[in-house]
TrEMBL record:
UniProt-recorded Gene Ontology molecular function terms: L-rhamnonate dehydratase activity; magnesium ion binding
Subunit annotation: Homooctamer; tetramer of dimers.
Its EC number(s): 4.2.1.90
Organism for this UniProt entry: Falsirhodobacter algicola
Protein's name according to its UniProt entry: L-rhamnonate dehydratase
Keyword list, A-Z: Magnesium, Metal-binding
A GO BP entry: carbohydrate catabolic process
PANTHER family, per the entry: ENOLASE SUPERFAMILY, MANDELATE RACEMASE, MITOCHONDRIAL ENOLASE SUPERFAMILY MEMBER 1
UniProt xrefs under InterPro entries: Enolase-like_C_sf (IPR036849), Enolase-like_N (IPR029017), Enolase_C-like (IPR029065), L-lyxonate_dehydratase (IPR034619), L-Rhamnon_dehydrat (IPR023444), Mandelate_racemase_C (IPR013342), Mandelate_racemase_N_dom (IPR013341), RHMD-like (IPR046945)
Cofactor section: Mg(2+)
Length: 391
């Protein structure tokens, strides 16, 4: 038995160049506010948290989190790390329950569950390294030769720009694409037409033999979404993502029951019980938890079992190795979201600048190596000059 001896957290703040987003980049929850200010501020994030869990033999497992890194760091340093130090990493399910139950009054969603996720992912990476196997092998093994990915970008902008981006992605071999909506309830019928024009324009480029998805990132409301669904029907979207805010489970269920466009969501849901509600109420047709928010790999595997039994596919939010390993090990996870490698824009891309080992898509697929233990990533110093790091 080897014991966990320390947990090191670091917040990485990007200070390098960023690509400024355009005005109608993507709708989001702040659009409903009276004074919007920089509404996109709640969407962009230029910080990341790394969480390294070390055992007495010097092996280090790496976890990470992207939600509110400075606050999550405090939660880990002050609350969770003392609960985990001294434990055997192979008691991962017990450690998870200990973290969950000792913070239940405040930690079961949001910051607490994000902190639990970062530690849990690090523990899985650690276990893989300790036994010399990739994490997907510990989860049940390979269910696919390669993982199909969908190209996730196409932020709302000028029609020609979106079409050129879709064209380039198509040439790169992607078989599925996700775009973002730029207009919401405050923009009325004219905004609806702008949204529809862009779906039509992207369809024009990728055709109807490929999957196309569209994301409102919680920037619509139930009334607006109900009016949009029939208008979207002709474009045969594989799914409409996060039409309403994360808490409005009844809204998701109502929209999904309309059976016009499949509804997806879950990247802002937390824990096994939270996701179970989405599944049991048939609130989503595709479940999109993010392993580094939902409770880590330990929770993800339990959620996968629930979703599989209900025949609801799981396609985790965001790329990243913790999601790819879970996807590889589950038949019910048909593909992965993939953020193309790009200059820093919304912040989704930052992990490429912090870690080495994140696999790149080729011809619309990515491969996981049987010979790389753990998650297969390491923290890189390639871009250190562009980060402020808080220990
Ligand atoms: Mg999304």
């Amino acid at each position: 038995m080897t014991k966990i001896t320390s947990i090191r957290t670091r917040v990485w703040t990007w200070k390098g160049p960023t690509v400024p987003p355009s005005g109608n980049f993507c709708t989001n929850a702040s659009d409903a506010l009276w004074i919007k200010g920089d509404a996109m501020a709640s969407f962009r994030f230029h910080q990341w948290l790394t969480c390294e869990v070390e055992t007495e033999d010097g092996t280090i497992g790496i976890g990470n989190a992207a939600l509110a890194p400075t606050v999550v760091k405090r939660a880990i340093d002050d609350w969770y790390a003392p609960l985990v130090i001294g434990e055997d990493p192979f008691d991962y399910a017990y450690i998870w329950e200990k973290m969950y139950r000792r913070s239940h009054a405040w930690g079961r969603k949001g910051i607490g569950m994000t902190a639990i996720s970062a530690i849990d992912i690090a523990i899985w990476d650690l276990m893989g390294k300790l036994v010399g196997k990739p994490v997907f092998k510990l989860l049940g093994g390979r269910t696919k030769e390669k993982i199909p990915v969908y190209y996730s970008k196409l932020y709302s902008g000028p029609v020609e720009v979106m079409q050129a981006e879709a064209e380039a992605a198509l040439k790169d071999g992607y078989q599925a694409f996700k775009m973002r909506f730029g207009w919401g309830p405050k923009d009325g019928m004219a905004g609806m037409r702008e949204n529809l024009r862009r779906v039509e324009a992207v369809r024009e480029v990728v055709g109807y033999d490929k999957d196309l998805m569209a994301d409102a990132y919680m920037g619509w409301n139930l009334d607006y979404a109900k009016r949009m669904l029939p208008k979207l029907a002709p474009y045969e979207l594989r799914w409409l993502e996060e039409p309403v805010i994360g808490d409005d489970v009844a809204g998701y269920a109502e929209l999904n029951a309309m059976n016009i466009v499949p509804i997806s969501g879950g990247e802002h849901e937390f824990s096994v019980i939270g996701c179970n509600e989405l599944v049991q109420r048939r609130a989503v047709s595709v479940l999109q938890y993010d392993t580094n928010r939902v409770g880590g790999i330990t929770a993800a595997q339990k959620i996968n079992a629930i979703a599989e039994a209900a025949q609801i596919p799981v396609i985790p939010h965001a790329g990243q190795m913790h999601n790819y390993h879970v996807t590889m090990a589950n038949t019910n996870c048909p593909m992965s979201e993939y953020f193309p490698v790009f200059d820093v824009e919304v912040g989704n891309e930052l992990f490429y600048y912090i870690f080495d080992g994140d696999v790149a898509a080729e011809d619309g697929f990515l491969s996981l190596d049987d010979a790389r233990p753990g998650l297969g990533i390491s923290i890189t110093d390639r871009h250190l000059a562009h980060f402020d790091i808080t220990e």
